[in-house]
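Schema walk-through. Below, the input block comes first and the output block second. Nothing else is stored per chain. Lengths vary across the set, and this one has 520 residues.
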Amino acid sequence: MRDVFDVATGRRSVTVGEAARDRMNTSHAMLSRMVQERRRIYGVTTGYGPLASHPVTPEHAELLQRNLVYHLCSGVGQPLSALHTRAMMVARASSLARGYSGIGATLFNTLLECINLELTPVVPEMGTVGASGDLTPLAHVALALLGEGEMWYRGTRLPAAEALRTAGLAPITLGHKEGIALVNGTSCMTGIAAVNAERARRAAQLALRLSVLYAECLGGRLEAWDSRFGVARPHAGQVAAHAALARWAEGSTRLMPAVQPPPLLEESQADQGWLPEGELPQDAYTIRCVPQLIGAVLDVLTFHDTTVTTELQSATDNPLLFANDDAVLHGGNFYGQHVAFASDALLMGVIKLAIHAERCIARITDRTQNKGLPAFLHGGRSGVNSGFMGAQVTASALVAELRTRAIPASIQSVPTNGNNQDVVTMGTVAARKTASALDLVYHVLSIHALTLAQAAELRGGAQLHGFAPASQDLVRMVRRSSAALETDRPLSGEIAHLACRLETVDWSTDTIEGGGAVIA
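--- output ---
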């Protein structure tokens, strides 16, 4: 899935191997022969959906495929982002390359050229129910390949015919089954889900590093992060979280080491047999339960990523051609329930990251709980300066926004298409909801990072004495975007800017990179 993300962001180009080309050529030859034999094949020599009872002679093939694209180009709303549209195109190319769809080389080559030249169709974001796949958004991609509709090319929105011509490409002509092969599949939801996977992975790794810095600011106990808890409860995500926390906490003198065996009760201080109150032996859950909380998110990520990876390696249109068996099978591989469920699960996971971060922000800014730090971490004169008071409210508001979006899309079936599609998946709605939620999650994590950078400097000075090297790197990265809050100033722009920068970093590595800067 990182390959999809890298191609969609323009970091890499996409190619196809000879084995895939051979599969596609064999499948195309088989379809051409069956059309010549005038076989009855859905969407090739018949109409579509409830109109499939109407036979269509091969002589009307181009009109049949073109009209499919036309009637499905009914999307509404704002355009999908270029990132999501390009990811959809990569996912569609991957599906077609399986060799079950019967398309010709010209169509496939044009699709790849558009991806590599960053010719990006303008695709309305709404209109698919994810049942016969993502018919509507994929139809808008197909329309642009036909030289109709619009495309983005080198930052300019152009008529598709002009964009193709400027890039040195010719519009396609749809052959037998090529329209339905383009539009009939789960590629929009799968492409967006692949992008979500990488964004969510980075968010979870960032949350782990922020958790270490948060615990350092509050003098947290290392005992609860001991890897033996993962031995006793061996969920893979929890085990991975214990390992990551140990890695990022290495070198810190601000975390309390575990004391074994436990200290004795101080019975010499007993008063009529009762001992006086002492300190709490364990931290609040925002510190103590990090391996279990973020570990569970990591397990959800694994489920999501396994599902989406399988989908990327699947043929998802209908019908499918099995050239080795000389068979054409009509079925439902376009049905996006796997990706719908996975996207809804990921949505719950990333929202939980924001919930944890918001609670950390609340504690670190509350002078009754932050162990001696200023109220709302303000600088300057108390009372005149309110510090992160407004930012903390914003974090709470963002969590409320996320909770209102948490209703699963994967169960919102609405029968359609003359009751032919009598159960649908809403997989693209689920993937889009998760993508939108990730935008908000990164803003909450941005506020969290800003507050912790302030708290760390209040604790350890500009040199961050006692903090783990990994935490020092994180604070310095924040400071490249936002100065310390010495007196109150508007933070809106800084929150948004840092949120964007946080997404550019692979937080699982030892070196923080982003925006051309490297902090070793």
